């Protein structure tokens, strides 16, 4: 995953413009932001790569602040990627809060950073619901 996030960050570094008007996102981009964020959420949670994701996100934030001092703003592509990462962080937080008190997943994912895999949740909870319905 390191090359993937490195390529995303390198791409992001080229998404700055001095013209404020070029930083508007088209409606299609706004519509695609949800699926994009959901994809990153799945990648981070299932791949257990939160540390890599959060370091990339912090690097992106630092670059935005640095470029802002130079008078540069994100273009529409950069805004799309940056907002997708923000929404992904919100999705991860909601996921963790929702499963915070799950005793079985807590045992499976011990440690300071608790981010259960979606597949583990599915096999533990959803799959058992299907088996219970079939036995009725």
Automatic annotation (TrEMBL):
Domain of life: Eukaryota
Keywords: Membrane, Signal, Transmembrane, Transmembrane helix
GO cellular component, one term: endoplasmic reticulum
Keyword flag Transmembrane helix: yes
Membrane-crossing segments per the record: 25-43, 50-67, 79-100
Biological processes per GO annotation: lysosome organization
Leader sequence segment: 1-21
Pfam families: CLN6
PANTHER family: CEROID-LIPOFUSCINOSIS NEURONAL PROTEIN 6
Annotated protein name in UniProt: CLN6 protein
Provenance organism: Steatornis caripensis (Oilbird)
Gene coding for it: Cln6_1
């Amino acid at each position: 995953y390191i090359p993937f996030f490195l390529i995303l960050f390198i791409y992001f570094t080229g998404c700055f413009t001095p013209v404020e008007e070029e930083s508007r996102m088209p409606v299609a981009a706004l519509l695609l932001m949800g699926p994009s964020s959901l994809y990153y959420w799945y990648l981070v949670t299932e791949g257990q790569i939160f540390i890599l994701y959060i370091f990339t996100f912090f690097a992106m934030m630092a670059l935005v602040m640095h470029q802002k001092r130079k008078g540069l703003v994100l273009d529409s592509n950069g805004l799309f990627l940056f907002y997708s990462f923000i929404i992904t962080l919100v999705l991860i937080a909601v996921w963790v809060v929702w499963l915070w008190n799950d005793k079985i997943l807590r045992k499976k994912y011990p440690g300071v950073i608790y981010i259960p895999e979606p597949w583990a949740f599915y096999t533990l909870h959803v799959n058992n619901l299907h088996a219970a319905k079939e036995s009725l």
